[in-house]
Design brief:
This is AAA+ ATPase domain-containing protein. Pfam families: TniB. The strands form two sheets. Strands 4-5-6-1-7 form a five-stranded parallel β-sheet. A two-stranded antiparallel ribbon has the order 2-3. It is elongated and about 65 Å long. Helix content is 47%, strand content 11%. Helix 5 runs parallel beside helix 6. It is an alpha/beta fold and 292 residues long. The relative contact order is 0.16. It has two domains: 77 residues, no CATH class; 172 residues, Rossmann fold (3-Layer(aba) Sandwich).
């Protein structure tokens, strides 16, 4: 079989594999570079290298569910893995990433933070004891950035609970003198605004839904080059426009639809995604909720 020049070089070898293996490869998570994500990674890199000072800059990455916030952070974390200091026996972690608990609770948050660091928290600990242990271990592991995902969970609590958690985040940033990176939906902005001092230190960075433009063409082109179909998929403007609109511009939904169509192209032997396949595709709509 001739080389599949329409695919990325690293993917071309997969095009000759059996159908089952190609489909499995299509369904794994993948990183597709695009300008807005690259800008976010550049901002994160700049903050990681920022010198310690009393008032550290922070970043809030927000957008609808499925826009790729977590994948951006995961890629950034992979680029900065932990290192082991043989002289001290300590694993230094440049980035500590933790998910906000489902509702604001200081004790549960410290338990989760200690678990991420790799230290089991003491049983029946007070908030003060958990705070002391977390700070000591964070100073030992020497992170240069603390990432908190799903920050919109803060608004699930009472006003007092929200204030206490925001005070905790501000305290960690001040004490460790490292940037805080918060991720969440649009409601995450409202959560951070609950503390004027903390809010003033955050730069908001949104990931808006995709529109039918040059950047969207680049995103879909990059995705198609990563899927081991044996023939090139040449999509029309009308097909690309529908792909964006029918998925409300949400990255995860767009990827899911394209990958589903690629799998069908393998199973049917067409080996390409056609404009007609996109224009005729029906996105499943959840059934209406019916009360008894």
């Amino acid at each position: 079989m001739t080389a599949c020049s329409h695919l990325d070089p690293a993917v071309q070898a997969h095009a000759g594999m059996p159908d089952r293996e190609r489909i499995e490869h299509m369904r794994v998570d993948r990183w597709i570079d695009y300008p807005r994500a690259r800008q976010a990674l550049d901002k994160l890199e700049e903050l990681l290298l920022f010198p310690k000072r009393a008032r550290m800059p922070n970043l809030l990455i927000f957008g609808a569910s499925g826009m790729g916030k977590t994948m951006i952070i995961e890629k950034f974390v992979r680029a900065h893995p932990p290192s082991f200091d043989e002289s001290s026996g300590i694993h230094h972690r440049p980035i500590i990433a933790v998910q906000m608990v489902a509702s604001p609770d200081e004790g549960r948050f410290y338990h989760r933070l200690l678990s991420v660091i790799g230290a089991p928290p003491p049983t029946r600990s007070t908030i003060g004891q958990l705070e002391t242990q977390a700070l000591r271990l964070l100073q030992e592991t020497a992170p240069r950035m603390l990432v908190i995902d799903e920050v919109q969970n803060l608004i699930a609590g009472t006003y007092r609970e929200q204030r206490r958690m925001l005070n905790l985040l501000r305290f960690l940033g001040n004490e460790l003198r490292i940037p805080l990176i918060c991720l969440g939906s649009h409601e995450a902005r409202d959560a951070i605004r609950g503390d004027a001092h903390l809010n003033s230190r955050f730069e908001p960075y949104g990931l808006p839904p995709w529109r039918h433009d040059a950047d969207f063409h680049g995103l879909v082109g990059g995705l198609l080059r990563s899927l081991p179909l044996r023939l090139p998929s040449e999509l029309t403007d009308s097909a690309l426009k529908r792909l964006a609109e029918v998925n409300s511009g949400v990255t995860a939904s767009i990827f899911r639809m394209v990958i589903d169509l690629a799998v069908q192209a393998v199973l049917t032997g067409t080996e390409r995604i056609t404009p007609a396949a996109i224009l005729d595709h029906r996105v499943a709509v959840p059934p209406p909720f019916v009360t008894a």
